[in-house]
Amino acid sequence: MGVVLSQSIKNTITTYIGFIIGGINTLFLFTNFVSDDYFGLIQYIFSTAAIMMPLMAFGVHNTIIKFYSSYKTRHSQNSFLTLMLALPMFIAIPVGCLGYLSFEVLSSWLSQKNAIIEDYIWLIFLSALLFAYFEVFYAWSKVQMQSVFGNFMKEIFHRMCTTILLFCLYLEILNVNQLIVSIVGVYALRMIVMALYAFSLKSPVLRFNRLPNFQKVIKYSALIIIAGSVANIILEIDKFMIGHYIQIENVAYYAVAIYIAMVIGVPARAMHQITSPITAKLLNENDKSELKVLYQKSSLSLFIISGFIFLLIVLNISELYHLIPEKFRDGIVVVFLIGIAKLSDNVLGNNNAILFNSDYYKMVLLLGLGLVILTITLNALFIPMYGVLGAAYATFIAVIIYNVAKILFVKYLFKMMPFTVNTLKTLFLIVVSFGLFYFWNFSFHPIINIILKSLILVAFYGFIAHYLKISDDVSSLIKKIINL
């Protein structure tokens, strides 16, 4: 767990720096420099591309993590990685041709509620392809146990470049159309840099020898597309469907609330970069005792950290919304609902890595497919009735159901649960902290209020977590921080 915690901390710091930059972009620059309809359009383009990404990648980024450690010779590793580089093109080329031939029908359907979308549909396909190959090269790096640089490229690089582009828009160096194309260009540059880094860790040697388990690899890649798409669909389909059912500026209002709540999921994203290849290795070695230890420790550490972040957000949410334009302030309930959903994601620990890297991944596919249908159905029902709040209801219900199902699957298949007595202690700490601080407000400027309440919460939460000895890893981290 030491290596996991060490790289997870580095990844968490990197990810939060990225989220801070992204927060400045989303909460302040986009909301002031870009009109609501174009802000909504930008969110729509990249959310739709994110939905398409697992299909365009042909599941390769998951396949690399699962199978790489099972190959022991240099020749077999090179043949495997050659196949992984080629597979996405077997999807991208037919999808691109189909999209070109049916462009008129597709553009009419996508832009029937918001005509502004029509001229940018080609950017959705291109962005999805860039996202897909970035994830392939990132996975290439992760199996070499090097995730920090990739995390920097994934979380910081494109957001930092977007900040620069937004100021170029403000200074009238770019117009809004050039801004959108330039952001796609940033994603292209990110993919190229990630490829160069991945190849510096392990140079590609093209070998077209047939793998002994070729059919198993292809079958896994094809099937994992569904499972790998579930998380993306749950988190991104709401923005797509908002743009389909109501005015596209609502995507912008929803995106601000979602971005705030997504901060809670950062620790899980950071830890996943290193726990995923380790989990795959433990499964390949059939080391169930160590797997259980990793499962419970990752769950507890993430619950403690994400619980604290959840409190920081929900206890300061009213003050935070006073810092952005008033028309965005109806998203407070969205933040609460999505925040709880993201907290439930964190308490699962490395559950996703266990399911997707095990031989039982097929059993998750039917569940995932059912969940996608449920998510789309709920969004289709709730968005026309409740607007952006309806999208939040749909996402909240879908995520909670999916997470409960995944816990039960691992319990049934591996006879282990992520929860311990310390999980209950952490839940108690979160509930008590919320009750103590939610109605405690200061009469100063919102920024001062946020700082004061956050400092008090840090002291209270850290002291109680350390006093109750909830987690050795977290207590050790607290001691290190105190001794700085």
UniProtKB/TrEMBL annotation:
The keyword DNA damage does not apply. The chain crosses the membrane at residues 12-35, 41-60, 80-101, 121-140, 156-173, 179-199, 220-246, 252-271, 300-324, 330-348, 360-386, 392-414, 426-444, 450-470. It holds the Pfam family Polysacc_synt. Keywords: Cell membrane, Membrane, Transmembrane, Transmembrane helix. It is a multi-pass membrane protein. It is found in: Cell membrane. It comes from the Bacteria. InterPro entries: Poly_Biosynth_Transport, Polysacc_synth. This is Polysaccharide biosynthesis protein. The lineage of its organism: Bacteria, Pseudomonadati, Bacteroidota, Flavobacteriia, Flavobacteriales.
